[in-house]
## 1
Amino acid sequence: QVQLVESGGGLVQAGGSLRLSCAASGRTFSIYAIGWFRKAPGKEREGVSCIYSDGRTKYADSVKGRFTISRDIAKNTVYLQAKSLKPEDTAVYYCAADGSSWPDPCGDDMDYWGKGTQVSVSS
């Protein structure tokens, strides 16, 4: 079992920045990737970014160049540095982990989910 706890959300003005954190605990050795997803009211859940256990990363086109995913292995924590925030970035942001190497650990079949942290961007 893996537990994930997000933090760092808040209210910022357009153009501002936030750093979201995802702290993993439990059987973290079984994690192949950790990704960030977001859910805005009235919209489907969207994959934002993901980092594989080997450090490779991926980003949604909507955030590429603005968001950066990183990790602190010693702290079992993955971060999402979100800059140049836009109102359309407003959503509940969730981190999720995949405990399987196949299919793609950064796909949409994540096994463990946090409870989310709210990001609100005002115009």
Note: The chain has a mean pLDDT of 97.
## 2
Amino acid sequence: QVQLVESGGGLVQPGGSLRLSCAASGFTFSNYAMSWYRQAPGKERELVATITSAGFTTYYADSVKGRFTISRDNAKYTVYLQMNSLKPEDTAVYYCKARMVDYSGTGYDYWGQGTQVTVSS
């Protein structure tokens, strides 16, 4: 039923760019905030960026501010992460997450499978 399918990862040179996509199905996409997380080997998973359900507000980790842009197209049920000026430190598995909290406080989280981004010369 609920599914998040990521694409766009790969190998890129330092200073290069990639755009990750996360296509959603099985839930009301426009009701969910969407986030990108990443996890590098030996490190904790960290929040990279978040966009609210209507796309009016975004959040970025300090490490990616000015370089990454999160966006969403609710008509296409897709969230994107445009990554520019990539650094080796950006190497990680990137995960897409959808979250809705209802009025009772119950959270509904869904995760993508993750896509590998490797920044290396």
Note: The CA atoms of residues 88 and 119 lie 5 Å apart.
## 3
Amino acid sequence: QVQLVESGGGLVQAGDSLTLSCAASGRIASTYGMGWFRQAPGLEREFVAAISWSTGNTFYAVSAKGRFTISRDNAKNTAYLQMNSLKPEDTAAYYCAAKRYYTGSKTSEYDYWGQGTQVIVSS
């Protein structure tokens, strides 16, 4: 079992930056993929970014590429999402997720989820 805890959300203005953290219990196996998703009120949870725990290979949603950066610190069992140039449409609850085998962009592919951290971007 893997437990994930997100932190770092908050209220910011458009154009500002935030870094979200996802602390995982235990050591993540080399086959794991870590992802960030977000869900705005009334909308489905959508993929933001993912990273391979072993290689650091990343991929992003179109909405995130160029503004967001996913990274991980294997020694700390922590994944990060650096968000720059935030827009009001980025407002959502952000969730960290872990996938047992490699990365993916669908919520159904992930096995473990954090509780979420709220990001609010004001205009």
Note: The chain has a mean pLDDT of 95.
## 4
Amino acid sequence: QVQLVESGGGLVQAGGSLRLSCAASGSTFSINAMNWYRQALGKQRELVAVISSGGMTNYADSVKGRFTISRDNAKNTMYLQMNSLKPEDTAVYYCNAVTSEGPYGMDYWGKGTLVTVSS
């Protein structure tokens, strides 16, 4: 099993920056892709950014050019650097890890960290 703990959320003014972290523990050797999702109040959870075990990345159109996903495999930690934040980025941000466990892989989630961007 894998445990994920997010940190780094908080209140920031529009145009500001935050860096989120996701610390993984447990069977971290089995982790393949790691992802950041977010869920705004009253909306569905959406995929924000993806990073593969080899470091390939992909982003939602809404955050391209502003957010950067990275991971430090030695520290079992994933990051999301968020710049030029907008009020519409306000959401609970969740860390997700996809592993190679079992015949179909496993999906793990952190409890989330709240990001609030004021206008």
Note: The longest strand covers residues 18-26.
